[in-house]
Amino acid sequence: MSKKTYQQSTEEIMLQVGSQFNGLSEKEVSKRLEENGLNQLKEKPKKSSFQLFIETFKDAMVIILLIVAVIQLLMGAHVESIVIFAVLLLNSFVSVIQTKKAEGSLDALKSLSAPDANVFREGKEKVVLAKELVVGDVVLLEAGDYIPADGRLLEVGSLKVDEGMLTGESVPVEKNLASINQTVPIGDQNNMVFSGTIVTYGRGRFVVTATGNDTEIGQVADLLEGTVEQKTPLQRGLDSFSKKLSLAILALSLVILGVQIFRILVHGGSGDMTADLLNAFMFAVAVAVAAIPEALQSIVTIVLSIGTKNMAKKQAIIRQLPAVETLGATSVVCTDKTGTLTQNKMTVMAYYLPNDKEEEEVTDPNKWTSDFKQLMTISLLANDAAITETGEKIGDPTEIAFLDYSEKLTQPYREIRELYPRLQELPFDSDRKLMSTLHYMSEEHLLLTKGGPDIVLERSNRILVDGKVELLTEDMRMKIQEQNEAFSNRALRVLAFAYRPLENRSLVLEDEQELIFVGLMAMIDPPREEVKQAVSDARDAGIKTVMITGDHKTTAVAIAKEIGISTEGDLAFTGVELDALSEEELKENLERISVYARVSPENKIRIVRAWQEKGHVSAMTGDGVNDAPALKQADIGIAMGTGTDVAKDASAMILTDDNFASIISAVKVGRNVFDNIKKAIAYLFAGNLGAIIAILFALLMGWDNLFTALQLLFINLVNDSLPAIALGMEKAEPTIMKRAPRNPNEGIFSGNTLTSVTYRGLLIGLAVIIAQYLGMAQSPELGVAMAFSTLIWSRTLQTLPARSNSQTALKAGLFSNKMVMIAIVVCSSLYGVTLIPGIRQIFSIPTNFSLNEIIISVALAISATVLMEVTKLGIKAVKRINQKTQVNPINE
Questions:
Q1: CA 744, CA 329: separation in Å to the nearest integer?
Q2: What is the percent of the chain with per-residue pLDDT over 70, rounded to a whole number?
Q3: What are φ and ψ of residue 386, in 5° steps?
């Protein structure tokens, strides 16, 4: 097996890329550019807006409506056909706009490329466009530079690189030249640099080993393009239901047409065969219009939009509407650690002074012990970080932690620095792992040093104990090492502090010897206070929380245990360990793995897919470029507000406060949104079922065609829309977060929804049949008008029982959802419009349709509504009796 780039020596790399330390020749650069192309990300051609527009017409119900609209147009019913075409076009435009909004992730990825680069070519330094770099180019780096390509380091000078956009970790990586023998993830490839990352400190030189799509960021781009966004459970449910409903409508319409034609042929009809056949055909079309809820797509969109507003109040910004409902079905949340579960802020958690005394934090600097004062002074002076007047924090997160700790203890760090200005310094070096500064203090020059505990302890021969300098004994060394290990076992990052008097004022590296050891300070990026409760709430709601982080395994497990993600018996894997698992082994252990550390973008996608293959709806959080492919793969990708544009563009939702607790709050909203969508859909289909039952009964009885297509379109698009939207504003049930996530494969009419829809539809149909029968006693036209009137009133008043399958409207509170009452009032007013002279003719309402007929229609509708509510009370009473009379089984 061939060595990877970071496992080879620099000599091997230079030979492999065909370069030398003074760079390539311009001729060679031109040749390589021609062979391999520019150093920029390439992408596949996107679908045009027109293609996306055409694809919206592939839905089964849309095809049926298109056929109906064309037939209406050919039959001269121009108004009806125009209305249907307008609804279809509106839905298509909304769909195309939503799709286009989600296509920005690769554009954002491209924007991370550096504009230019400092290179060595033919032994001379020059500035070139970054896109003109080739493999083998030697590039110079300085603090503040964007790294323009992937490469192996040839030279470093205290080089630190922020690789957070690839690894997700906020602490800059110290770079070196050492070869690495074992296989390690990107975060541990310390002899490499990667395109799109930023130099935060020092300088360096590297040889380019990969450009364009061959870079790590290019592989992320390939993963993004190769990852197909998942359809939401609601979309899958509606697609499946749409196909079944369309086939049923088509079959029903054809059967009705066949029956009508059979009657005409057998009984002769009215004598005008053409007119009879036309009427039969229009009757079948009317059935199709009655059965299809034309406003369904728009109403679902509006209810989802209401959910987005409610989620925005919970710090969750929705980019793709269906994500609102998906979040409610989520059963697994794969979350990043840094900034989501933790504060993304290195914080001093503990310190150690070698005096065997338990010392508490003292917020009055005047009461500090001399040893603690010395420890704090070194941490503030051997420190390059700063806080500006506006509060902006500049520098290494670890050094900023010392400034924050000092401010917390009411000792402004600026006072210390003004009192003891820096005279000279020995900057931090990744080889020495030390930083030292020179100051004039207590009438002498002191060298102040901070660094890795092992290094500082090795260079110390004395120790400060209770203000006195003593010889550093082996016992003392052992105690310090034990304390360092204790801190490390808690996943704390530890630094040691020491000092020594100096006679000379000219610092050299040899001065960092014979130090006086002072103490240790331990830091961590601590968990957010509210996260522990949020994880517990997620567990109560049947949601599994999994930590996926670029941090080290020990740190990740410690945080996971503290906040309750990892419990007894849970497993933790690194990315390398995960790669060693077969698909079968991963599937077997998946539900026991609570922590993944040091992972790659490919690892994250694999984890998400594994949960999806087990039938779970997965949410994935992230903020870096490395998270983008998994964010796109997940059922719902959740980007952090402070994250990269690439992550945001690949996600369906953005957390403005980067807080895990906000995800769980948003889940509650998502569950309520789905409940309300089901209520709205049930409301629409109960009304449509009532109309179909009445139409079929009229057909069997040989009565006149019951409704015109225009009447049905008015009811479906105008009258039913407001009540359905009002149902989308119902408040959440109290137990909504105590139930398990719903099965993503369950149908729209799962549970008792289908029974409720059928029962309400039967009552509405019965009321309409009675109305037509009563009206026909005077004339067929009046019978049709009364049927139309009763159908409108029945469907409008049905809004009240549609609010809940278990509670009556009175129990739920008539005015707890004021929009329902407003919708009923508005619909009643719209009904009045159909009775205005001139308009009533359009709706086929005869002049002899009077107040008496209106009262009968309203009375029938109220009777149906009351029966719906009374039935709920009856079912509840029966359940209560069964519970009381139920005999508990006797244990034998």
A1: 7
A2: 89
A3: -155, 155
Is 336 labeled as catalytic in the residue annotation?
A: yes
Which position has the token pair 């503290």? 562
Report CA-CA distances (Å) from 435 to 204, 387, 405: 19, 20, 19
For residues 487 and 476, give the distance between their C-alpha atoms in angstroms, rounded to a whole number.
17
What is the C-alpha to C-alpha distance for residues 361 and 409, in angstroms, rounded to an integer?
8
The residue whose two tokens read 């919708």 is 823
d(CA 649, CA 100): 11
Kindly name the residue from 59, 150, 162, 336 that is annotated as catalytic.
336
Taking only Cα atoms into account, the Rg of the chain, rounded to an integer number of angstroms, comes to 36
* CB 485 within 8 Å of CB 478: no
Q: How far, in Å, CA of 138 to CA of 32, rounded?
A: 14
Q: 537-542 long-range CB contacts below 8 Å, 24 or more apart?
A: 537/664, 537/737, 538/333, 538/664, 538/667, 539/564, 540/737, 540/738, 541/664, 541/667, 541/737, 541/738, 541/739, 541/740, 541/741, 542/331, 542/739, 542/740, 542/741
Q: What is the 3-state secondary structure (H, E, C) of 645-675?
A: HHHHHHCCEEECCCCHHHHHHHHHHHHHHHH
Q: What is the pLDDT of residues 789-826, one digit of tens each?
A: 999 999 999 999 999 877 888 887 888 889 999 999 99
8 Å CB contact between 600 and 626: yes
Neighbours of 715 (CB within 10 A): 26
pLDDT in tens, 664-691: 888 888 888 888 888 988 998 899 899 8
Query: Model's pTM, two decimal places?
Result: 0.68
